[in-house]
Amino acid sequence: MAATTYERLKLHVTPEKFYVEACDDGADDVLTIDRVSTEVTLAVKKDVPPSAVTRPIFGILGTIHLVAGNYLIVITKKTKIGEFFNHVIWKATEFDILSYKKTMLHLTDIQLQDNKTFLAMLNSVLSVDGFYFSTTYDLTHTLQRLSNTSPEFQEMSLLERADQRFVWNGHLMRELSAQPEVHRFALPVLHGFINMHSCSINGKYFDWILISRRSCFRAGVRYYVRGIDSEGHAANFVETEQIVHYAGSRASFVQTRGSIPVFWSQRPNLKYKPLPQISKAANHMDGFQRHFDSQVIIYGKQVIINLVNQKGSEKPLEQAFATMVSSLGNGMIRYFAFDFHKECRHMRWDRLSILMDQVADIQDELGYFLVDSAGKVVTNQEGVFRSNCMDCLDRTNVVQSLLARRSLQAQLQRLGVLHVGQKLEEQDEFEKIYKNAWADNANACAKQYAGTGALKTDFTRTGKRTQLGLLMDGWNSLIRYYKNNFSDGFRQDSIDLFLGNYSVDELESHSPLSVPRDWKFLALPIIMVVAFSMCIICLLMAGDTWTETLAYVLFWGVASIGTFFIIIFNGKDFVDAPRLVQKEKLD
Q1: CB atoms < 10 A from the CB of 472, how many?
Q2: pLDDT digits (tens, 9 = 90+) for 342-386
Q3: Neighbours of 117 (CB within 10 A)
Q4: What are the transmembrane regions (predicted)?
Q5: Of 479, 307, 471, which is closest to residue 397 (Cα–Cα)?
Q6: 457 membership: H or E segment, kind and range
Q7: Which of 6, 64, 262, 365 has the fewest CB atoms below 10 angstroms from its CB?
Q8: What is the pTM of this model?
């Protein structure tokens, strides 16, 4: 029973304390938080005052310190995703942030505004879809890692045994994690994507599950977090596991994605694609080696699939990656470069078979994890494909879905679900489930990193590129451009606050939030809106020569002013940049 947390909870609130009551059968524990001293203790049900205001909650996300003092964050609504080997998996969909303080009279006007901004940042993170948990199962580990554990590991609480790379509320749980006696109230929460389906092929029923675990190390948004940090953590690192459960047997196939593991940046500057900058001062080999040393320890052999362009602005990154692999000389690491855009231009996505053929023998060598109905490990996965493009989103997801399908084909044949000679592609009902799940996974990863749905999902969903898909890609690219330039600084600050990369100090003499925005940051959006309005007027006034001419003059005049601003001033002056974490921590 050690590796479980309480499932049914009630929150009792009094002016002095928060009481979190465990309502599971036979439970008498009550977690007590003193709203004045912030002390956390364990009590029993009879200690809850009858005058307390009571409501149900579904978990404690943790606590955080802001300008006004401490706050308690709780899960107030959840949705059932499915059952995972008889363990229920939930998605947290609504949260509440409760102040320990009963009044804000002790704050100045500036502090009140800062506190309001910090609360908005927390809500910004919590509003991004993709927080998952289970009160009885460790979602942070793959099946293979869980199969190779000690008896001591089995006795640990869910919080203690969790893979800290994927515990997104680890910083919020720091007070509870320090007190083992309250660990049954401590719920590790995953951020990413989970999809579960009961499927049938040839009259044989099996569960098919897709899990993407997003790392909280070097987490952030698209253009503000690239490359690696000094500890070797890669930006936008995601571990994706595909699982099959049939007749008691379980099989899984794991892949990873992550930013090109050298020190590079790509700060927004109003250009559609800012020029990537590779650091000239950093010790790339040190960070690179740290990254792959940890990857080899965790996953085994590394097969790198680099999908970036091999010309233009992406070429130096491809060359740097190839050079680092060659210089490291580690026999556990193999490198494949595949210029996705060049090979698949003119919508020739069938040419992805070239890459699949290149790595087919290696995929067979790596294998997959399989445990039989008796709990005996039949095969282990000996390594992973580590795929990347620039963002590790659109191109990466397409290739990962193809590799996963090939592994699934082999697994289902071995389990006896598919007959000899049968192809997954021929199973229309399952193919629809499979493609839509991988497209949904792409959208989830993209929204969490880039702020919009993924590109190229028409291919993932249908197996072919479509004109409608191209139009949707254009729309999503436009939204990405706006968010990356005008709102991602706030999103980056929000993530840094949530994960503890920035800690609020109410005694700080100068708040980073008090730095006024440059007038140019406010000017450009106004210019863009006016220019767009003039364009609409041009269309509405068609046929009226005088007014049409005037509207055209105004439109081009305003647009020219906007262009002049961008040319004369540094484009970075116009974008929404982070304000909480120092620049070197983001580069």
Answers
A1: 17
A2: 999 988 889 999 999 999 999 999 999 999 999 999 999 999 999
A3: 18
A4: 521-543, 549-569
A5: 307
A6: helix 457-462
A7: 365
A8: 0.90
